[in-house]
Write a structure and sequence with these properties.
By secondary structure, the chain is an alpha+beta fold. It has ten helices and six strands; from the N terminus they run αβαβαββαβααβαααα. The chain folds into two domains: 8-34 and 116-281, Multidrug efflux transporter AcrB transmembrane domain (Multidrug efflux transporter AcrB transmembrane fold, Up-down Bundle), CATH 1.20.1640.10; 40-112, Alpha-Beta Plaits. The model is unreliable at 285-293 (pLDDT under 50).
């Protein structure tokens, strides 16, 4: 039978092949922050006739907005993201599009100031820190401190994989991305706890001479079908939503697709293996696993 735990160095290498280039990209290029963070305007329009992205860009260039992001979001619908502009300039742009390309309906016209964007960034980071600390405390109470550290390291892995791919491929990050990352952390920790719980049950019934590596590997095989079935069920729905849900959901759904895939991978190939490495390096357990009542 294939031994997951014995091959753990290869799982670590696979993760590092994504995370290290991602960290380099984050350091030198950063993230493609949307208007939720940088400030700007988001306008969604429905035209009465078919228009192309190039036609919209041409009109925007006449108003000095050639750097704007233009996306087709549906039948005759266009999403336009601009930098921070005045209300007068916003109205002039919409009027120019109407004059040049025909009748249109404004479906959405939102503005976010840079001050609000900075506050959102700070709150997003604070939310991630609080969530991580709370998970360490819960897992320490439920299992042991080393498992808490391993679980949070796996969560950090999932967050870094998602951030890395968004930075490398220069995908836009907005407030929906933050919600997706928090959702990913919740999904990933649940899968990890299921495996840790099975490991604990197997430790109780194992022979004293059976090595921990063997117990962990057996536990992974026992939970593998559940992990795979859960991930595939979620991914089927997310892929359908990505292609059918419209442009405004794409960032959120794509982040979830990456995160669910990474979360399933980390729960099977990373978290338990990290725990084993911590146990081998520091054999003394900080507190015993909590017995079930």
């Amino acid at each position: 039978m294939f031994n997951f735990v014995r091959q753990r160095k290869y799982w670590y290498i696979i993760s590092l092949l994504i995370i290290i280039p991602g960290i380099i990209s984050l350091l030198f290029r950063g993230l493609n922050l949307g208007i939720d963070f940088t400030g700007g305007s988001l306008i969604e329009l429905r035209f009465e006739q078919v228009v192309t992205v190039q036609e919209v860009r041409t009109v925007l260039a006449e108003h000095g907005l050639e750097q704007s992001v233009v996306q087709l979001s549906g039948e005759n619908q266009v999403l336009i993201r601009t930098g921070v502009i005045t209300e007068e300039r916003n109205q002039a742009m919409v009027a120019g599009l109407k004059d040049e390309l025909g009748g249109l309906t404004v479906l959405r016209n939102d503005s976010v100031g840079p001050v609000i964007g900075k506050e959102l960034t700070q709150r997003a980071i604070l939310a991630l820190i609080i969530a991580s600390i709370a998970m360490v405390v819960y897992i320490t109470w439920r299992f042991e401190f080393k498992q808490g550290l391993a679980a949070v390291a796996a969560l950090l892995h999932d967050a870094l994989v998602t951030l890395s791919l968004f930075s490398i491929f220069w995908l836009q990050v907005d407030s929906a991305f933050v919600a997706a990352v928090l959702t990913i952390l919740g999904y990933s920790i649940n899968a990890t706890i299921v495996i840790f719980d099975r490991v604990r049950e197997n430790i109780k019934g194992a022979r004293k001479t059976e090595p921990l590596e063997s117990i962990i590997d057996r536990s992974l095989w026992q939970t593998l079908a559940r992990s795979a079935n859960t991930a595939l069920t979620v991914l089927f729905m997310l892929v359908a939503l990505y292609f059918l849900g419209g442009a405004t959901l794409k960032t959120f759904v794509l982040a979830l697709i990456i995160g669910v895939t990474s979360g399933t991978y980390s729960s099977v190939f990373i978290s338990s293996q990290l725990w084993l490495d911590l146990k081998e390096r520091w054999p003394k357990t900080l507190r015993p696993a909590r017995a079930e009542t």
